[in-house]
Amino acid sequence: MTSRDAWAWLAIALLGFVGGQVVSLILLLASAAATGNLSRLTDLTKQRIPPSWVVISGLVGLWIGFVGAAVSASRLRGTGDLRRDFGLEFRPRDIVLGPVIGLAGQLLLLRLLYLPLEHVVPHLNDKLSQPAKHITGGFPGADLAVIAVLTVVIVPVVEELFFRGLLLRALVRIFGRAGGAVGPSLAVVTSGILFGLAHFELLQLLGLSAFGVVLSVMAYKFRRLGPSIFAHATFNLLAILSVAFPTGLLH
């Protein structure tokens, strides 16, 4: 990949992110109109636990933008093969390695990062779990099951393809001129921070960025996305379980 290709990938990634937000809004408006809630849409989106169609519209819109960006970058300035361009490949050991990292991320990394804040931020654990509750909390069994599957199966693949495939590889090439380990380190940290910022959650930014760095390290080290996808899936699964079973593993 040339530097020009890398900058093109970065530009396509930005367009994909913005485009995903736009598509999410369009789907949200269409869903609100179809359910007769167009006049109440603003209030519904601000609810602590919005209707499931609000959540699904937002997720699907982002996926269209993320996947569209990866596919476009691959076809326009790559080989056209997602495996070769972004490392979308799985191996048997990923099934073991990924979940171990995902477990460590939720049970160790996040706890250590937020330990100093426990006596500073009131009800810290409840506030940290709000994004998961926003996505999965309060829904009836069928809706919860659908959203849980989407969050654990689809989200990791789509987000890893975008952040650790398209974005990270573009940044590695762009920062490559720094030489030695500096370039890859800058790329890994930058992609991790962007991953955290993309979730628009201020309190969770520290944890999401830190875990994003971990996922980027995995993707860079193994040159493929299999391990980070399974790690991401496990991380999300534990977040969902913390909502479904609040007295379970994570409490």
Describe the secondary structure blueprint for this structure.
Layout: H1 3-34, H2 41-46, H3 52-77, H4 82-86, H5 94-114, H6 124-128, H7 130-136, H8 141-174, H9 182-197, H10 205-222, H11 226-244
Tally the structural domains: 1
Which H/E pattern describes the elements?
Answer: HHHHHHHHHHH
| Quaternary organisation of the protein chains | single chain
| Residues in helices, as a percent range | over 70%
Supply the number of helical segments. 11
Give Rg in angstroms. 18 Å
Main pleated sheet: none
Query: Cα distance, first to last residue?
Result: 46 Å
> What form results from the Cα inertia axes?
globular
Q: Tell me what portion of residues adopts beta-strand conformation.
A: under 5%
Brief summary:
With about 250 residues, the chain is an all-alpha fold. It has helices spanning about 5-35, 40-45, 50-75, 80-85, 95-115, 125-130, 130-135, 140-175, 180-195, 205-220, 225-245. It contains eleven helices and no strands.
